[in-house]
């Protein structure tokens, strides 16, 4: 490794996806820890929870299990794979009063400093499986494939007719009418700008229900993180003869082999050079894929395989049900031709655990007031995750 010295000295690393910097302090891994320790992550749940929810809220039953009632009073179908429904407590709504800020003069402090805009949208909950006691790490690639197919259907149903990806979606074999009704959503009442698919796994990441699930939020605005990436990826293409930032990054990582965790023909799993969280990884498509609808049938299965590899290695690392927040970044639902073409499919995993199943990383103090900071280097993290392949640890118990 040409930069071996970086394992021992404090230094900053640049994140080209966000145009930002972070501080790396590898020597701090030697410091004693007397702060908060999380309880070991255990999965001690029933396969089906008809009477008592394990979400610490004294619920009568799990709101996500098949055949159970939700807070809205609706009853879940007896689903076999995935089940999607409109979130009973959505963060954004399709119907609300319009808001337009009054325009003021350039000297009007209110219009300069007290800005706001209305946001409309639609939020969904998507269960991964009918079984209450499993996670993605417990599932096979074949079991995970229906999740990816459902993500693709939801994304396709929300694409703007002006988006060139809408024509790609029409040619997919994943047509809505042939899908199980519990994995289909109707087109929205309004056209939305962006769709964020994300999962919060574990109580440490604020997950209030352990039943395996994710969320899908569509909004009329482009959120901060994907917006920053869109700008940076567009800038990179302009400055480098139309090359894609993440395509070049995949090529570089495949050559250096210093931060690679795992890869197959279609996807690379890497602890990125600029990672903030201790065991943060990115899944990046090896070819230019703009969004889920660009996947071939083979790539959907390879993506399922990749998700399974990441989540199983996480659990094997500290032999615990590893918490994380993950999310897919892809082309916006509605955008300029340049925005769509500049987009490059990738998925972020942000896990908080640092040294063990009980010691987590906190983004506080310097991280909040100055810039992000990490201790263990991405190269060290990648080496640990590479060693965590193989069978899921709890299957050996």
Automatic annotation (TrEMBL):
Q: State the free-text cofactor note.
A: Binds 1 zinc ion per subunit. Binds 1 Fe cation per subunit.
Q: What is its EC number?
A: 2.7.7.12
* GO BP terms: galactose catabolic process via UDP-galactose, Leloir pathway
The cross-references to InterPro entries, in alphabetical order and at most eight, read: GalP_UDPtransf1, GalP_UDPtransf1_His-AS, GalP_Utransf_C, GalP_Utransf_N, HIT-like_sf
Q: Which cofactor does the UniProt annotation name?
A: Zn(2+); Fe cation
Q: Which GO-annotated molecular functions does the record name? A: UDP-glucose:hexose-1-phosphate uridylyltransferase activity; zinc ion binding
Q: How does it assemble?
A: Homodimer.
Gene Ontology CC terms: cytoplasm
Q: Where does Fe cation bind?
A: 229, 329, 346, 348
What superkingdom does the record give?
Eukaryota
Name recorded for this polypeptide: Galactose-1-phosphate uridylyltransferase
Please tell me the species this chain comes from.
Pseudomassariella vexata
Q: Which residues form the Galactose-1-phosphate uridyl transferase N-terminal domain?
A: 8-223
Keywords attached to this entry:
Carbohydrate metabolism, Galactose metabolism, Iron, Metal-binding, Nucleotidyltransferase, Transferase, Zinc
Q: Which PANTHER family match?
A: GALACTOSE-1-PHOSPHATE URIDYLYLTRANSFERASE
